[in-house]
Structures are given as C-alpha cells and as structure tokens.
Amino acid sequence: MRRDYFNLACPVRTTHNAILNRGALALSLVKLLEADGMGVNLKVFMSVYIRNEIFVFDISLKSPQELLNAKKCFYPLCSREFVRRIVFRVMESVPFECNEWYPGYGIALSDGQFRNIFGISQNDMVISSPDEMGVTGENIFSDGAEMFRIMGIDDSIIIPLMKAGEENVRTE
Questions:
Q1: Could you read off the pLDDT of 48-92 as tens digits, one per residue?
Q2: Are 68 and 30 in contact (CB under 8 A)?
Q3: What contacts 3, CB < 8 A, 6 or more positions away?
C-alpha cells in the first residue's frame, strides 16, 4: 500500500500564498489520484529536531477507503494557522530534554532525513515544505508545474500555464 505524507513544517519566511498554493495543489493531486481509481492514505505531519531530539506530530486525514473531504483537509493543508494553533500548542506541552527548544520550534527534517529516519519508501509520496517543492506562491500554475516536476510526476500531469492577459498557454 502506498502512503502519502504532507509535511506541515516550513521556514518562518514562507509566505501565506506559498502555503496556500502547496495545499491546493496537494488537494488537487489527491482528487486526480482518486479519479484514477487510486486509494489515497493521506497523513499530515511535522517533524523537527534540535540536537538529538526529534518531535513528530502526525494526523491521518483520510484512509484509502474514503473519498477526499476537502473541508476537513483544507485547514491543515492550506493554512499556517493550523501549525500555530494546533501543532505548536502540542509542542509546548511536550517535556523536551534539550532546553534549546524554546523560544524556537526546532529545525525541520528534510524529505531525505524524514524518509531515512522513519523508513519511508520511495514509492510513498512526500510533499515537503513549499521551498523544497519549488512553490513560491506567486503563480499556482507555475508552482504546480514545478512541484509536480520535483515529485517526478510531471510527465503524467499537464498544467496549463496562465499569465496575466493570456487565455491559456500549455506546456508539453
């Protein structure tokens, strides 16, 4: 069974639009996979570390047997506030051994670190921070083209590139 992970962690300088675009693209990708008959097991997670301590927060948003509930998934996938209001509150209640966790919230594990530490297969999809996925938040069409290229699925998905004042410019 293939698992799909969505990393909530991102640098503090990440824009609201970059987070929104990455989330909207992830929701669209899940819909495409479901339309193709694939069951999607979607988990959101945040894994950060300081020194030799790792904090992992994860929630299963949908099982392979259920269809995507966009209302349920939008807040965790598309807003910075979910991390601030939910994940950081959980973090602040954890009795860390290292005293360097506060006032910061650690350093995000990269996609490679996450895969290695938790034994995530290369067949499993991991959507990392907007920076790692090439999502800038300036144009959702170019963000999608870059994100899907980085994920290695750009040959399966054609994104129309839209520019101001143009009808539809397709890339193939």
A1: 999 999 999 999 999 999 999 999 999 999 999 999 999 999 999
A2: yes
A3: 41, 43, 120, 121, 124, 125
